[in-house]
Amino acid sequence: MSDTPSVHPHKRRTGLNRLWHAAGYSLQGLRAGWGEKAFRQEACLAIVLLPLSLWVGRSWMEAALLAAAVVLVLVTELLNSGIEAAIDRIGPELHDLSKRAKDMGSAAVLLSLLLCAGIWAAALYQRFAHG
């Protein structure tokens, strides 16, 4: 038996072949995320908010900040779903560390939602209350 660990076949890919496969895995991740109710709700909201950010933002930087806040929610939700899937893969039994990991992932989603709501509230106030 050799002392050197074998390299996983996916790690041997390089260049465009690696990029092509990585894009495929990312699309599979988005499809898996779509299977989560919370991600679907946030994605549907993003479909409305992302174009709206171009209108609400008074500059490209404001529009980018509004859009980034929305995308951050989606990213955080996907990471939270990944944490939950990994914990569920370990086993169905209740464990303090499993609960802690899931609770922390959920808290990250909550913080991203609060940040997004705060940024959008400030932008809407600026746009409509100050003309």
List keywords for this structure.
131 residues, mainly alpha, extended
List the helices and strands in order: HHHH
The number of E-state strands comes to 0
- State the helicity in percent bands: over 70%
Mean pLDDT: 92
| Residue runs with pLDDT of under 50 for 5 or more positions | none
> C-alpha Rg, in Å?
20 Å
The termini sit apart by 74 Å
Describe what this molecule looks like in 3D:
- This protein has 131 residues and is mainly α.
- The protein has helices at 15-34, 37-56, 60-90, 96-129.
- Helices cover 80% and strands 0% of the residues.
- Helix 2 (37-56) packs antiparallel against helix 3 and helix 3 (60-90) runs antiparallel to helix 4 (96-129).
- The N and C termini lie far apart (74 Å).
- The model has no long low-confidence stretch (mean pLDDT 92).
